[in-house]
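tool_call predict_complex ligand=adenosine-5'-diphosphate
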Amino acid sequence: MKKVLIANRGEIARRIIQTCKKLHIETVAIYAEADEHLPFVKEADSAFLIGPSQVQQSYLKIDDIIDLAIREGVDAIHPGYGLLSENSTFAKKVEEAGILFIGPTPETIDKMGDKIGSRQTMEAASVPVVPGTTDGVNSIDEAIEAAREIGYPIMLKASSGGGGIGMIRCEDEQALSQHFESVKNRAKAYFGDDKVFLEKYISNGRHIEVQIFGDTHGNIVHLFERNCSVQRRNQKVIEESPSPNFPDEARARLLQAAVDAAKAVNYRNAGTVEFIVDEQNQFYFLEMNTRLQVEHPVTEEVTGFDLVDWQLKVADGEMLPITNQQEILSTGHAMEFRVYAEDPKTFFPSPGTIQSLDWGNVEDVRIDSGYEQGNAVTPYYDPMIAKVIIKGETRSSAIEKARKFFSTVTLEGVKTNIPLFTTFLDAEVFMDGTYTTSALPNWLESQKEEK
Ligand code: ADP
Ligand code: ADP
Ligand code: MG
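tool_result ok
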């Protein structure tokens, strides 16, 4: 592999360029008008304007991207995350053009992109799934009948949903009837598919996911877990590894279940198996993400491996750099904080120009950012400014460094969620590691009441 096109933008494009440079692989970037001045455009060996700012007219233009890749003579395309990364049509067309797709096969993407289908696959492989309907529910009456059997509260979910969009918790029959059509409509509008199903809502649950990796020689390993339960709008804000407050015995079973899940689909390249874990440490399969995850640096920090490097090698037909599970170790503790240009109270995006930016110089802090001082965070894309990854020998030393970091950073010009981090780091549920997926919203409510 000598030349790679990156079909993405911002921090993840930069992240991929970094590893390619290390491996002496040439990089081709694509960019939309709004991104012209971002660092990834300068850092790539070559960069091409692909279209106007809207993603439909630029980063999602499958045929234009592939035409460019052919013209530039690239060997492979890395899709990053979001955008086209889980689009099986794209993966298929890339391979048909004789270019390597850095990810799983189009068939796996299809199979796992559908939550109903992936639940069925996992059940067949004896991986525990969240109790719920095996198939989609077609009418309100069908939904009500199924929910009676499952028991409330239930989660009404779009089968092709993602990014926290297309799901709602329903406390009772009335709520289910009320939301049924709107979730269907939303699913149709966002994902072009109105299939919905029901899951039991796991109260006081934790989101714990496992990084897995497979190659084309039949090897599959896990790279431990990440706890991603600090969420707002069912979307992650802080992730950490190892998962606090999770017994070793349960962890070992969870890791094995993830490997079983990957084996069930003969998985290739990087993937994540997401579970929801209940108060008794029972875990249930939620979904599988067939791409590199936003929070992959957490895993890189505890294992010491470069996951993009692994992705490139696997795509090139090589074996996994390590195939013996026993040789993959996790040391210390890592946390990732997603810094967003958003209002810390309403979570609404807050685009604008970063007038002044100084990350300070706290030790053991890694910044993965798509922006520099003077760059604009535009309304066209995800408003994440940076990922701050902090490593400590222990969880408490990582938290201590995080406190120091967030008290010294300067970021002006846009509203960010940094004020939220500075205070939530001191919240008891975070400090003692017992937090669930509702901890952050609950804590914000309690702060309001105090005032
Ligand atoms: P992760 O599980 O890696 O944290 P997220 O679910 O937060 O991933 O999504 C990763 C990126 O992909 C984000 O930029 C998010 O906005 C985007 N994304 C995820 N799912 C979708 C989707 N179905 N449609 C559009 N964007 C999505
Ligand atoms: P997405 O594709 O949007 O990432 P997921 O199915 O992974 O959707 O769920 C996202 C988040 O929603 C989870 O991390 C969790 O916080 C919450 N969630 C989803 N399903 C359930 C459930 N059955 N019970 C409790 N919480 C859930
Ligand atoms: Mg998910």
